[in-house]
């Protein structure tokens, strides 16, 4: 079964939604190590489970920006993740 209007299986959608939300909570709480672990999983799922296309590219770009800001600016990292949540919800 796939999500309506997308090429991603429902399980992938659920996993990404959960992972991005979890990463945002880690960013907001200043938990950099846990944030980076969750982010690594988002990257892996995006690369292996999503077809090439705009959603995959946006998520991977967002992950790169979150990683860049993870140590120095948790608020910016959390906002990138909030935008990514809207993409997968």
From TrEMBL:
Q: Which residues form the DUF8101 domain?
A: 1-88
One Pfam match: DUF8101
Q: Which domain of life is it from?
A: Archaea
Q: What is this protein called?
A: DUF8101 domain-containing protein
């Amino acid at each position: 079964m796939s999500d309506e209007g997308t090429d991603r299986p429902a399980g992938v959608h659920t996993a990404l939604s959960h992972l991005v939300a979890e990463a945002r909570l880690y960013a907001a709480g200043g938990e950099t190590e846990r944030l980076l672990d969750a982010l690594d999983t988002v990257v892996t799922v995006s690369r292996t489970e999503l077809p090439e296309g705009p959603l995959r590219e946006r998520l991977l770009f967002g992950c790169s920006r979150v990683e860049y800001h993870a140590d120095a600016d948790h608020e910016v990292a959390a906002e990138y993740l909030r935008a990514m949540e809207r993409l997968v919800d």
